[in-house]
Specification:
Distance between the termini: 37 Å
Number of strands: 8
Number of domains: 2
Shape: globular
Oligomer: single chain
CATH architecture of the largest domain: Alpha-Beta Barrel
Radius of gyration: 22 Å
CATH class of the largest domain: Alpha Beta
Largest sheet: 5 strands, parallel
Strand content: 5-15%
């Protein structure tokens, strides 16, 4: 293969607009600016934090490291041995690329931590989001996971994706106030399953209209397996009444959480899918690996969703994170089902090499209009830069291989790259 080809493709890909399929950024930049944080506390909000804990750092030591009220040099000395162990993971590499690209500083190290923090704090002001996302990254739209909130989106390039999870499986911390929320927003007093279903439909209708959205999202795999069986209405109604009675007894003593048994969760997920089918929505499903340092990874196997794919052909299913480590399963599902799509958000920093290998397989097996190349999946904006650079390099490298094998021309490769980074996600997510 021509050694100059991947670099030439990469340089052309950097000129292309990007649709970012998934982020966790705050939707009011002034909130972020008001927070007491520095470069270590922000860069260790997640991901690198998890690798450092996985490498063996104690939680109490990490708590000191992320305390922005303490001396940053002392904090760096505490974390440095573990940071070095993680520097060459996708998470670590993304951060080194980030600080070079955004601040012109040679990586995160003891030598650079003080000037890096000074540069970080100098840029911690309104306008930083737009500068990083639009000017440096070339991102046109970011789809923002707003969890279950009602928000006032103050950043025009953000497109909210709401999660209906509190109607399927009320969970901490937001599910605790769900009844009060329903009364306040919809004027409904929930006394039975029909009321609950009505509240869900009103909430979905309100928020889809408010955000002009055609996509919703669920991360329910963090809490249970992705297999949702059919539960009959009569059974679900009885289970809801039991759950409501138990909640009413418990809340006399404290502010209790409404807890649904598995069969009732299954019923509500199918109801969400019916509403999504009526509206021809795209549903983003977290599949595969979980952020953090402990969970049951098989809960996120995308194969568990197969009955939903069959039952709801009007719904487009966007499988997050390539299903890693089930990327071959995700590939087979996208090949077999017209309504199943592959989303590479988060994947390029979970494992750059696994993502490149998966993309190589996807392009061999799946129509390329079904693949979205990038979603940063970050809680802090800077990390998106480094992640996108890894994603661009991965796509350029894989496309160059295909050109070298005679699969397609360089012109066609660039057409495919634009589809992966822009055309496909814009269409799949109905932007």
């Amino acid at each position: 293969m021509n050694n100059a080809l991947p670099e030439r493709l990469y340089n052309e890909i950097r000129k292309m607009p990007v649709i970012d399929t998934h982020e966790h950024l705050v939707w009011d930049e002034e909130v972020r600016c008001a927070e007491q944080s520095d470069v270590l506390s922000e860069y260790l909000l997640h991901y690198m934090r998890s690798d450092i804990l996985s490498a063996g750092m104690k939680q109490e030591d990490l708590s000191f490291v992320v305390d922005s009220g303490k001396n940053i040099t002392d904090r760096w000395k505490t974390v440095e041995p573990y940071w070095e162990l993680c520097r060459y993971t996708g998470y670590g590499r993304a951060l080194d690329i980030t600080v070079q690209g955004i601040y012109g500083i040679d990586g995160v190290s003891g030598r650079t931590i003080q000037p890096l923090n000074e540069a970080f704090l100098a840029h911690k002001k309104p306008g930083h989001f737009a500068w990083v996302l639009r000017e440096l990254c070339g991102i046109e739209t970011c789809v923002i996971d707003i969890w279950t909130f009602h928000i006032e989106n103050k950043i025009p390039m953000f497109k909210p994706a709401w999660q209906p999870q509190n109607f399927i499986m009320p969970s901490e911390p937001f599910g605790r106030d769900i009844m009060a929320h329903i009364r306040e927003k919809h004027g409904l007093e929930v006394r039975c399953l029909d009321d609950w279903m009505e509240a869900l439909e009103r909430e979905m209708t309100l928020l889809l209209r408010r955000y002009e959205a055609g996509t919703i999202k669920t991360s329910i795999a963090y809490h249970r397996p992705l297999r949702f069986e059919k539960t009959g209405y009569v059974k679900a109604k009885a289970l809801f009444e039991e759950a409501l009675c138990l909640w009413e007894r418990k809340r006399i003593k404290n502010d209790a959480l409404l807890e649904f048994p598995r069969e009732l969760q299954d019923f509500m997920m199918h109801h969400v899918m019916k509403l999504a089918a009526q509206r021809h929505l795209t549903v983003q499903f977290h599949t595969g690996l979980f952020e953090g340092t402990g969970n049951i990874i098989s809960n996120g196997n995308p194969e568990l969703l197969s009955n939903l794919f069959i039952e709801y052909p009007e719904v487009d299913f966007d499988l997050f994170h390539i299903g890693y480590p089930y990327q071959s399963v995700a590939c087979a599902l996208a090949k077999m089902f017209p309504n199943v799509f592959i989303d590479m958000c988060w994947a390029h920093i979970i494992s750059p090499s696994a993502s490149a290998g998966a993309l190589r397989d996807f392009l061999d097996a799946v129509p390329y209009n079904k693949i979205s190349a990038f979603g940063g999946d970050y809680m802090f904006v800077d990390g998106i830069y480094g992640h996108l650079e890894i994603a661009r390099r991965n796509v350029a490298s894989v496309l160059a291989e295909k050109i070298g094998q005679g699969v397609f021309s360089e012109v066609k490769a660039l057409e495919i790259a634009k589809a992966l980074f822009y055309d496909n996600p814009k269409r799949i997510l109905k932007l």
